[in-house]
Specification:
Layout (H helix, E strand, L loop, with lengths): L20 H5 L5 H14 L7 H9 L1 E4 L7 H12 L4 H7 L10 E4 L4 H8 L5 E6 L9 H14 L3 E5 L2 H5 L3 H15 L3 E5 L8 H13 L4 E3 L11 H18 L4 E3 L7 H15 L11 E3 L2 H12 L2
Parallel strand pairs: 1-2, 1-8, 2-3, 3-4, 4-5, 5-6, 6-7
């Protein structure tokens, strides 16, 4: 059961609750209101000189990611080096930021590169995250997916990003989804577990809301929008549905669940949009690496470009 303490503290980590079909069946989303709210939020966000603190904040909550088919150890080493030092020293000096004060939250890589990342990030405080559970499709038998998680935990990964079987949502097999995520939770042990919903494949906002709720009931530490491999990845409407589900879950259980938008986030403006959304929907206490991550591979370059322009 969830602990009834303040959001974001170690004691309020989500331990899950028993499957609650009544809560699930009562969950409905006003699609028109969600679309309007997301459109309004996006229209209000622009990158200006006043955006500097938020852009730096976005870097500190970033899961710097490479999940390409042709990844190599050398590419992962470069990613880790960038994670340790996301911006050039000269730019940090112009921004009045100490080199030691800025780093990403985690690097996210395939299982086979866990040891490389652990070696490169030793002593940095940056977490090593890996994707698992038959990423990105989630179609293998659950026993095989659980075994994959066990291997990543044994290899030393700090965080495990697991992907659900989207068919459970599309066919409304909610108990099967709960049992699947609960099995993943058990396999992750005390490692942080991010549950990837694949929102672009789920068809309806009601499906996204219910999948979010099930993942949290089953013990997710984070819920995450996308694998980055779908035709449609992170979107503001889907993120709004998920953060509202997180807020409702926290209100009812006292447990704080994190949120990670990922996939298709390429611009500084998009990063600011997600920061603003989380701050407005969940509060400033969620804007830390413990409860908010941005999964990205290229957005850091655009943030750097805008920060360079802001100091000219």
């Amino acid at each position: 059961m969830a602990d009834n303490t303040g959001p974001g503290s170690a004691e309020s980590r989500n331990h899950g609750i028993p499957f609650d079909p009544e809560w699930l069946n009562a969950t409905r989303v006003d699609a028109h209101a969600i679309e309007q709210a997301a459109e309004s939020l996006a229209a209000c966000i622009a990158v200006t000189k006043e955006s500097q603190p938020s852009l730096l904040k976005a870097i500190t909550v970033m899961d710097l990611t490479t999940l390409a088919d042709d990844d190599t150890d050398e590419r992962v080493r470069r990613l880790c080096a960038r994670g340790r030092h996301p911006l050039p020293p000269e730019l940090l000096g112009q921004l009045g930021v100490k080199i030691s004060e800025l780093k990403v939250a985690a690097v996210c890589i395939y299982h086979r590169f866990i040891q490389t990342a652990l070696h490169e990030l030793q002593g940095s405080g940056i977490k090593v995250a890996t994707v698992s559970a038959d990423f990105p499709k989630g179609l293998a038998p659950v026993e095989e997916r659980v075994a994959q998680i066990h291997r990543s935990v044994e290899a030393g990964a700090d965080e495990i990003d697991v992907v659900i079987k989207r068919e459970h949502v599309l066919r409304e097999r909610w108990r099967e989804l709960y049992d699947e995520v609960a099995a993943f939770r058990a396999a992750c042990g005390n490692k942080l577990m991010k549950v990837i919903l694949g929102t672009g494949d789920l068809q309806t906002f009601d499906g996204i809301a219910r999948a979010s709720l099930i993942a949290m009931m089953a013990g997710a530490d984070f819920i995450k929008t996308s694998t980055g491999k779908e035709m449609t990845n992170a979107t503001l409407p889907a993120a709004l549905v998920m953060t509202q589900a997180i807020r409702e879950y926290a209100k009812k259980t006292g447990a704080a669940v994190g949120f990670k938008p990922a996939g298709g986030i390429r611009t500084a403006k998009q990063a600011l949009e997600y920061l603003s959304l989380v701050g407005e929907e969940l509060g400033g206490q969620w804007l830390t690496p413990n409860l908010f991550r941005i999964g990205a591979s290229s957005v850091l370059d655009d943030i750097e470009r805008h920060l360079q322009q802001l100091v000219i």
